[in-house]
Amino acid sequence: MSIVPVILASSSPRRKELLQGLKLNFQTHPSDEDETVAPGTAPEEFVEILSLRKASSVAARYDQGLVIGSDTVVVCDGEILGKPQDEQDAYRMLDMLQGRAHWVYTGVAIVEAGGNKQQVAHQKTEVFMKPLDESRIRSYIRSGEPMDKAGSYGIQGLGATLVEKIHGDFFTVVGLPVSLLSDMLEEFGVHVL
Ligand SMILES: Cc1cn([C@H]2C[C@H](O)[C@@H](COP(=O)(O)OP(=O)(O)OP(=O)(O)O)O2)c(=O)[nH]c1=O
């Protein structure tokens, strides 16, 4: 158990659940940072910039503690897909992803509040989606699940039925690479196990 306060700079229920899995005491403090990044930024850089921006903005509000920020995007044909704007956008994304492979990138940053230590890294996982016809995509969109998720699907929910297989870390797809995060926490003196 750590005595350093840990703060998750996120409004994502998935990230909260995944961090709870590490049995750390922590609080959440969502960041309201702007999520725009310069066009043409590579995905690995994109998720690291946003993870660090989220963690740094929340760290600035505390005198001490370790603040964790994270960001997830889906990458297909060189296009970075974030959360859909609306149902039409969700359809466009799912139609693009069906029947083929894409990458999910998740960045994770730890920023020491009241100090000057910080670390950022990312992980990527390849996801193979089944071929999906229009009615299946529309039915999935009607479930409401796609709307707050990068690439318009959630592998941990109904979206699991759309996925054929993955290569890499499952938790990276859901939105927080917990194994990588635990290694990073070690560097800050927090031992999960
Ligand atoms: C691909 C995929 C993404 N997602 C989610 C994880 C993230 O919550 C979301 C990507 O959006 P993010 O902008 O990374 O995160 P967020 O806005 O939800 O939360 P915050 O910035 O406050 O931390 O997509 C899933 O839940 N399952 C999946 O399979």
TrEMBL record:
GO molecular function, one term: hydrolase activity
Localization: Cytoplasm
Alphabetical list of InterPro entries matching this protein: ITPase-like_fam (IPR029001), Maf-like (IPR003697)
This protein's UniProt keywords: Cytoplasm, Hydrolase, Nucleotide metabolism
Matching Pfam families: Maf
Keyword RNA-binding: no
Presence of keyword Cytoplasm: yes
SUPFAM superfamilies hit by this protein: ITPase-like
CDD domains reported for this sequence: Maf
Role of this protein: Nucleoside triphosphate pyrophosphatase that hydrolyzes dTTP and UTP. May have a dual role in cell division arrest and in preventing the incorporation of modified nucleotides into cellular nucleic acids.
Protein name (record): dTTP/UTP pyrophosphatase
